[in-house]
Structure formats: structure tokens, C-alpha cells
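[Archive record]
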Amino acid sequence: MKRTSLFLVWVFFFATGFARAQESLNWLTLQQAEKEMAKKPKKLLIDVYTDWCGWCKVMDQQTFQHSTIAKIINQYYYPVKFNAEQKDDVVFRGKTYKFVANGRSGYNELAAEMLQGKLSYPTIVYMDEEFNVIQAVPGFFKPADIEPVLKFFGTGAYKTTDWNTYQANFKSELPK
């Protein structure tokens, strides 16, 4: 009798989708994202971080690994990780960006350009299908806080609706 019960539980989980693998993000480099954009244009979500940033690490664990958030990002964006303090030259859109030493560390010129000189981490840079910066949004976001932002830019609602109106009418997909 016990084996039959366990078997029925197993069948229930698979039949209802509870055993489905969680959706995850496949982070790209800027160069990989450029290649993907040439094949199929999509918006970019660029996670600008540093190795020493504690909130960047928390956001990686709590927000970007959340399956609903990953699903939304995968639907609307190519996700890119960008270390703002990387010392290697970065070639993006045909231009070479260099490391600039500054105090005990420094920054890559591309980070400064994308963040308009406001080097704050974490910051998510949202770009349209032509690599134009839509908005750079600084700070740590929990899943419930980032979901409306992802959809606001991802769906293109930012073109026709102001943020306050959008947020007031937003319906979350996150489990309650």
C-alpha cells in the first residue's frame, strides 16, 4: 500500500508540473548579447555590479534566481552581467572602453557611460533593441519590487504610460 501511495504522489507532481525545473537565467557577455541581437532583436538588461558589492550578491541569490523573475527576464531581455571595475578593455558597439584607475580601485569607461557617471552598485541598465539606454535603475530590488519595473520596460509600456499609472494598475505574477 505504501508503494502505491508514493507512486500516486510522484504521478501527481509530474502531472501537475510541480516537478518542473525552475527557469533560470543564462547570463551573457556584452559581445554575446550583440551577436544575439543581430539574430533576434530584444531589449537588454545589464546588471552592473562589482566583486565587493554585498547587495549585488544578495540580488543574485534572492532576485535573479527567482523562477518567475527569471521567466520575465528571459521573455523580454537578453540578460548581461557587467563588472564595472573590470580591468580588461571592453569592445561594445565598435568602441573600446578602458579601465580608469581611481583611488584604490577604478572603473571601466563603459560603466561610467551607461550610468552617466553615477557609479552606484547594483544598478540595472535597461536598453532598447537599438542599444539605446532606456533607464539606469540603481539599488537592490526584491522580486516583488523588480517585477513591475521589468514589465514596464520589457513590454514597452514606458513609451505610452507614466510610471505611477502603470504601477497603480500592475498585476503581479508572483505567488502570494
User: Anything to note?
Assistant: The beta strands are 43-49, 77-83, 90-92, 95-97, 99-102, 105-108, 123-127, 133-138. The helical segments are 2-16, 30-39, 54-62, 67-76, 109-114, 143-154, 163-168.
